[in-house]
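Reader question, answered in our methods column.
A reader sent in the components of a multi-part assembly and asked whether the whole thing could be modeled at once rather than chain by chain. We filled in our standard form and ran it. Here is what they sent:
COMPLEX SIZE: two components
ENTRIES:
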Amino acid sequence: MAESTLKIGSGEAIKENKLGLKATDYGGGKSTLCAACGHDAVSNQIIRAFFEMSVKAEKVAKFSGIGCSSKTPAYFLSRSHGFNAVHGRMPAVATGAILANHTLIGIGVSGDGDTASIGLGQFMHLVRRNLPMIYIIENNGVYGLTKGQFSATADEGSKLKTGVINDLPPMDLCALAVELGCGFVARGFAGDPKQMVNILKAAIAHNGLSVIDVISPCVTFNNHEGSTKGYTYSKEHDELLHQIGFVPEYEPIEIDYEPGTARVVEMHDGSKIVLKKLEEDYDPADQVMALQRLHRATANGQMLTGIVHLRPEKKNFMEMLNVVDEPLNTLPLEKTRPPKEALEKIMRDLM
Amino acid sequence: MQIKENNVSETLMADVAEEVDARTEPIVNDLTIHVATVNGSGSQSSNNVLMRSIFQMGVPVSGKNMFPSNIAGLPTWFTIRANKHGWIGRKKEVDLMVCMNAQTAREDVEALQPGALCIYDAPLNCKTMRNDVHFFEVPFAKLAADLSEDSKLRKLLTNMVYVGIVAELIGIERDEILAAITKQFKGKQKAVAANVAAIDKGLEWAKANLPRQNKWRVERMNATQGKIIVDGNAAAAIGAMFGGVTVVTWYPITPSSSLCESLIEYMKQHRIDENGKATFAIVQAEDELAAVGMVLGAGWAGARSMTSTAGPGISLMAEFVGLGYFAELPGVIWDIQRVGPSTGLPTRTAQGDINQVAFLSHGDTQHITLIPNSVGECYEFAQQALDLAEEFQTPIFVLSDLDLGMNNWMSDPFEYPTKPIRRGKVLTAEQLTELEGKWGRYADVDGDGIPWRTLPGTDHPFASYFTRGSGHDAMARYSERPADYKATVDRLQKKYETAKLFVPRPVVDTRDGAKIGFIAFGTTHWSLEEARDQLRREKGVETSYFRLRALPFTDELKEFVATHDRVYVVEQNRDGQMADLIRLEVGEDQRKLRKILHYTGLPPDARTITDAVLQMESTIGLAEPLLLVRALPTLGGTAPAVIPTIVPQTGSREVRAAED
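And here is the structure of the entire assembly that came back:
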């Protein structure tokens, strides 16, 4: 397997970020998930990404639905407000909160049950709206919190611990997001933290909805022989689309790769994402190519990881709604209550 | 019902008309006009013009649209009631019928009271259906023939022709029709001219060809000056806008859609700032679950948020509303009640969501609910609900209904709010610094059951907390401890108790010596006030009246029941949902309660209420004064009088009124 990340800059781990905060300032409560759960690995990379990106945690709002994955917002960024919503309906709550205050940096954590089954409708409409937030699906193919039933992302033919075989085709949430016009679609693997943190940093820099499908093995119910979402199987079938490098806007870009071997995508905030080609010259802005590539990998029994689709220029929902720059929740009464003359005019029209 | 089929000659028709004309004392400014048309034929404009013309002549008026769940083709009716005393509730008896729909002509004519007037489209040949109604045959197609070459437009203009016919027949002034037309078509010259031509055609033809009638007349009076005409949904929208709403989410459902649609129009006009940007966000959601989820998410983040829906939407919102109650999230939900379920009678009115709304969701939930009875209260409560939602940090319901929401009502103009809005207990970063970061999201520091909150984005390291349902302690830490859960739900109960001091008080009209009291709410008010007047004038019975305007009940309720011998709860559902809630509230005194239930999909009328009271009053002294009025099956949109059968029944004290 090739290295999933590009070495850019000094690569040295920082101890203090630009806000003068330490990584521990981005921590959360103690996880109550099973030891070695993929979700905890994702939480750790969320902490690292927000810390290294020097994001003020007070400006972040965390959202989740119901399930093991949805418990994790309690385990990172404890200085951020968090909202554990109802099953499958986190997108609605997040949408409302971002409408109320679009300066919030929204991060939602969902699972494959929460997103692909009960919450499929809300997920799809969230994607259509391009609400500016990060939406992570911690995808393990099973319902963990209710003890191991198949989810809608379970692969056909995969086996439960009890021996039950899944007969239904899996739902590819990355392909679905691409289909619905999402401007940032990525797949990561909890077993590849370096790739994960780069995807997360790129998502933080994206000014629209970022959908990140993370294969995050369930060590208790779906990590056995016959499972296709376990650590070993996923590692063996991880097909890298490209190597990813993230360059923050304040760092000069230094790429020592031959011309034509890497694509550089400039993000809204001036940061850059460097994607180094591996087997092919992949254009992440090409929606058709993205779908083709995802489907081909699936047909070959592989799990495609990387930033599958990237269109940073897409208009987000708040821009479409043409709302004022100030957050709606803090508008003073003189801005939200029209003057007396307005009411008098309305009354005259009704007379 | 008197139905006679015989061939009445043209001459007889003229005779009858002469007879009408011969009456010396016309009934002035007290009539009901009922127009039967085909849905989608544009009759709405014609009916609005008729209604507005009468209104502009200074006569109190109301308009009720009885329409099918259909875009075009099915029958629809519009009733205009003009009444000099200001009674604007529904009246069952039709005085002037306009038959334009072949599908319903027969039943429309059959339903008329003897002596009524009936204008009809010539091919319907209504005059052969009865001989005790005054018919006026009009060749509409011929009159409309040269109004336009466009057949579609001609169809619309045909309906304007009847406006002219009606106007000539009962004396509506042409100038007022012209003013109403200009208003209806917003001054668009071409449309105004075409419609005026159609109306003039009707006026002139009627003058030259129809016999005059002198039984019902409309004459200028001065009871509507300075008043407005508006529907409850638009009134609610105006209220919400002046209440400072910023996030509105909705999913289309009759009869609530026009609330958010009106709001969109008003907001576009009045809530765009100097840079051309919106001071609001309105989102059409993918369903009601998403709509209410967005409302609660926005409320959590500190925006004034609301949605509007109807019964089926309320059902879908049940889970989220439970979360909103336990996690203490502000948001306003308008329920424009209609007959259930989704495939029921979505375009007919009801007050059937009381139980659903009062306790919506799982666990021990109870919700603050406001119940407006008028467009004025829709305006007022729209603002108050937004205040209450933020002050009490909970979903607030506003219960309207189709009759109020979609029909046009006369009202005094709305007054500009003088008080600032109330945003509730929100801690700022500065306050958190003063508190040295020591605060608990669910701590009842003020003893009123209402905790303090912080908004996401508050720039303080101790501002954050984690929001989840009921599994938390006072500091918002995860907890499944029995004592913590109990403390949470007990505090929520205390909060609901506190709300009694803040919800709109009832409007109580206690009459000296009255033994009978009425309790009603919402649109039932209009017919009930008229029924009280009937009891007073016709029977010399003075009654008291308690108009409920909110849940939770306030202390006045027990007192009202205690001070009357018999209390009739009048409402528009089958089971007496509010009466049962009142029964739980008043304890011992529940023996005084009786139910009058009207649930036909149409608004109740005063006579039905009066009759029901008299029937129950006539059984006083019997050991078991328990009644059930059964009615005959309903025919179409109009309703002739019925003779109810009285069946003694044990276990309940109620009259179920019905159309027949």
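What stands out: Chain B touches chain A through 72 residues (CB under 8 Å). The longest strand of chain B covers residues 30-38.
Send us your own complexes using the same form.
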